[in-house]
Amino acid sequence: MKKATIIIPTYNEKDNIKSLVEGIFKNVSALPNWMVDVVIVDSDSPDGTTELVESLIPSFPHLHLIRTKKEGLGKAYIEGFKIAIEKLQPFVLFEMDADHSHDPTTLPAFLKQIEKGADFVIGSRYIKGGSIPQDWGIDRKIFSIGANLFVRLGFMRLKITDWTSGFRAIKAWIIKDSLAYVNTYSGYVFQVALLDHAISKGARVSEVPINFVDRKAGVSKINSIQYIFQTFWYVLSHSSFIKFIIVGLLGFVVDFSFAYAFINSLKIPKASANMLSAEVAIIFNFFINNFWSFRHKKIEGGFIAYAQKLLLFNLVSLGSVLIQGGGLYLLLTFMGDKIFALLPGVSLSSWIVYKIGIISFIIIPYSYVLYNKVVWKK
Ligand SMILES: Nc1nc2c(ncn2[C@@H]2O[C@H](COP(=O)(O)OP(=O)(O)OP(=O)(O)O)[C@@H](O)[C@H]2O)c(=O)[nH]1
Ligand SMILES: [Mg+2]
């Protein structure tokens, strides 16, 4: 028998918690391989949630209550994780909402994934078989889908479809490893931070479909504006992909500025000046990527290591140059050299359109993958 502990944060959930606790134990009591505890982390709810949970404990020997101050969802989870790990020593911990948005009949599916070797199982609303409520307004649908798409693209982790889901099963070693990190994220962004950190620790992530339903009783506690801002900022400040794009754009500016200065101030012939400025930009990008975009994989080993990696970085850049040249040659030959009319009065030469296409769809993925797998390989 392995132990699983379901952590449920509550704030004013007196109309939900009793039926939820009953539903959970009904679905997990007979599982052959698992012994399941439920830990309610209540933040001093004024509506009587605490007293209600206390009154349920005699009927459910595996139900526990932790009382905390009201400091947001993240802090409630962290408190719950710490105490549950210390007192119950579970193998896996669940995150689950109290408001019946998360269906307890799917709990066994999460545990199946854990048995198959997953370290972090996400209940996803966006994979086949999962869903968000049909009656959500279009604004809410767009926000939810858009936020997830933004995080997926920002982190270049397209396989994970639901970053913001609050229904998850996570092995205890990941939680222990993440507590210090997530401690600074108190609100709902804590969920994104925890998953991001788990991935950086090598967690095997898998997803199970969930049908998310709206709360029937009680009121929502989420502060959407704050949540959007925090999530946006978290991704911007933690995504090596976005930083890599920014460095690429800066490199472009460096290249042009140096070419201009070499030609006009130092009177270097144009072709040589551009070769020199391209190399300046490459060296600039190499160092900024090393100390910023890929800081977590910074090159170690002194001068020789840096020289070797800089050489590799130059080779990858040379690859980009050849891809651009070859791609443009093929496109111009087969698609023709023409003028594209984009909008009335706005037209572009075909080579510019082709170049933008090659950079967006080939050069960016090519460089990002090679930087990760070759230059800043862990
Ligand atoms: N302990 C504790 N629980 C909280 C706090 N804020 C929210 N919760 C709980 O976290 C869970 C999710 O909160 P909800 O208000 O349902 O937020 P949501 O599910 O993102 O939003 P809705 O879709 O509107 O329900 C619920 O079980 C809440 O009771 C808090 O500060 N402390
Ligand atoms: Mg809810």
Automatic annotation (TrEMBL):
Residues 243-376 form the GtrA/DPMS transmembrane domain. Belongs to the glycosyltransferase 2 family. The chain crosses the membrane at residues 241-263, 275-292, 312-332, 352-371. It is found in: Membrane. This is Glycosyltransferase family 2 protein. One of its GO terms (cellular component) is membrane. Keywords: Glycosyltransferase, Membrane, Transferase, Transmembrane, Transmembrane helix. Residues 5-166 form the Glycosyltransferase 2-like domain. It comes from Candidatus Roizmanbacteria bacterium CG_4_10_14_0_8_um_filter_39_9. InterPro entries: DPM1-like, Glyco_trans_2-like, GtrA_DPMS_TM, Nucleotide-diphossugar_trans. GO terms for biological process: glycolipid biosynthetic process; polysaccharide biosynthetic process. Signal peptide: none annotated. GO terms for molecular function: dolichyl-phosphate beta-D-mannosyltransferase activity. It is a multi-pass membrane protein.
